[in-house]
Amino acid sequence: MKRYKRILVPVDGSRLSDIAFERALEFARLVEGDVTIINVAQHILPPPGPGTMQIDMDEKKIAKDVIDKYVERASKSDVKVNSIVKEGNPADVIVSMSHDNDLVIMGTRGHNPLATILLGSVAEKVARESCCPVMLIREKKDDCRR
Q1: Per-residue pLDDT averaged across 39-47, rounded?
Q2: CB of 58 within 8 A of CB of 38?
Q3: 89, CA 20 to 30 Å: which among 27, 117, 124, 146?
Q4: Helix, strand, or coil here: 135?
Q5: What is the rounded distance in angstroms from the CA atom of residue 106 to the CA atom of residue 97?
Q6: What is the pLDDT of residues 3-33, one digit of tens each?
Q7: Which of 124, 92, 120, 95 is nearest to 107 (CA)?
Q8: Would you tell me the crossing angle of helices 90-97 and 122-129 to the nearest 10 degrees?
Q9: What DSSP state is assigned to residue 98?
Q10: Phi and psi of 38, rounded to 5°?
Q11: Per-residue pLDDT tens over the stretch 97-121
Q12: What pLDDT shows up at residue 117?
């Protein structure tokens, strides 16, 4: 049976990201694994131009701030947690990183509903193209009993 020792958790600061992160810590504790959290700074708008460099720096800072909050929370656990900030298309970066991990745990809805409408769901693409199993954390449906 495959051991799920390396768990990748894409985070964006949303409530479902928080839940996915907590589930990843719980799972890693059970299997004596480690967690890598990643936030991907993406640039949908504006097109390249004079103000792009400032926007890039702002996006990187926001991504770093999001990661730092999870790192701080992880410091209170007994699980080894690594953190990464990358740039690019979130789904493509996560799929690429799935090569080096045993499991991806992520939320199904994040902070950017416009991007979801325009580009499709990051979680859906990751689930379809990932090189390892993907656990999706979603909103509880009203008709679920638990």
Answers
A1: 72
A2: no
A3: 27
A4: strand
A5: 13
A6: 899 999 999 999 999 999 999 999 999 999 9
A7: 124
A8: 30
A9: G
A10: -135, 140
A11: 999 999 999 998 755 555 555 545 8
A12: 54
